[in-house]
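FAQ: What does the model actually see?

It sees only this:
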Amino acid sequence: MTAHKAKGKTMNAVVVDLESTTGTESPYVMLSRATSLAGVYILRPFKQKVIQRRPSQDVREEFRRMDMLYHQTDHPGVRDGRGSGGSPEILG
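And it is asked to produce this:
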């Protein structure tokens, strides 16, 4: 099953081939389908850069857009000290 087809699914166990992934989202999707770490099996060795890729331009732009919306939106609890008080971190 491809990472694209696996989106939205939850499985008890997954066998992933990280060496064959492209982009930054595929490794995340593949690894996050299992219900626990014990259910993740890595098929073969992979280069570490596969999971350390920089997010795509589209993803970085979406994080910036979400950050702007965060700052434009009233957040109950943040101003009076009951909330986390922090904004989402922009990656990239």
